[in-house]
Design a protein that fits this description.
Layout (H helix, E strand, L loop, with lengths): L2 H11 L11 H8 L3 E2 L1 H6 L6 E5 L2 E6 L2 E8 L5 E2 L12 E2 L4 H10 L3 E4 L8 E7 L4 E5 L14 E8 L2
Antiparallel strand pairs: 1-2, 2-3, 3-4, 4-10, 5-6, 7-8, 8-9, 9-10
Length: 163
C-alpha cells in the first residue's frame, strides 16, 4: 500500500480504509486509538461540534460525536505520519505529491474529477472527485517547502465533509 493508493481510494470512495463520514467517533477511536482532540474539546468538553481529532496527518471533524469530515494533510518537501490503519507498515512517508501525479493516478483509476472553482484562485487550485465529492487542494510551494520544482502545484490536503 502506498500513499498514492490511499489518496486514490479516498478520492473514489470518500472513505479512508474503514473510516467514513457518519461513523461514531467511538468507533473511529476503536480502530485508530484515542486521537488528540482539538483544544476546544479540552476546554469545552466532548460535545462541542466542528473541531477535529487528529492522528498525525489524519484529522476527523466531529459533530454530535460522529465523524463529519475526514482530512489528510500533507507537507510537501517533508515527511508526514498517518496511522497504520490508513497506511500500513509506514510510520512516516514522503509527503510530496505533485498535482499532475495525482490527476494521472485518478485518470488511470477511472475516477472522475473536475476543477473546483470555489477553491481555485491565486496560487491555489482544487479538484472535486465524483461521485464521492472528495476535494483535493494544491498550491505552489511556500518558502519552507523543500521541493524540487518551485513552479509546480503540490497537494496540501484532501478532505470530505458530510452535507
Amino acid at each position: 500500500m502506498t500513499l498514492m493508493n490511499v489518496l486514490v481510494d479516498f478520492a473514489q470512495t470518500g472513505r479512508v480504509g474503514p473510516l467514513h463520514c457518519g461513523m461514531p467517533l467511538t468507533e473511529a477511536e476503536d480502530l485508530l486509538g484515542q486521537g488528540r482532540p482539538h483544544p476546544a474539546h479540552v476546554m469545552k468538553g466532548p460535545d462541542i461540534d466542528g473541531y477535529p481529532y487528529s492522528w498525525g496527518g489524519l484529522k476527523l471533524d466531529v459533530t454530535q460525536r460522529a465523524v463529519s469530515g475526514i482530512w489528510i494533510h500533507l507537507w510537501p518537501g517533508s515527511t508526514a505520519k498517518l496511522p497504520s490503519l490508513v497506511l500500513p507498515e509506514s510510520e512516516s512517508f514522503e509527503a510530496t505529491v505533485l498535482r499532475e501525479e495525482l490527476v494521472t493516478a485518478l485518470d488511470d483509476a477511472g475516477c472522475e474529477h473536475y476543477v473546483n472553482d470555489t477553491l481555485t484562485f491565486g496560487q491555489q487550485s482544487s479538484i472535486l472527485t465524483r461521485p464521492s465529492d472528495v476535494c483535493a487542494v494544491f498550491s505552489l510551494p511556500g518558502r519552507d517547502n523543500h521541493v524540487p520544482h518551485r513552479d509546480r502545484y503540490y497537494l496540501g490536503v484532501m478532505h470530505k465533509h458530510t452535507a
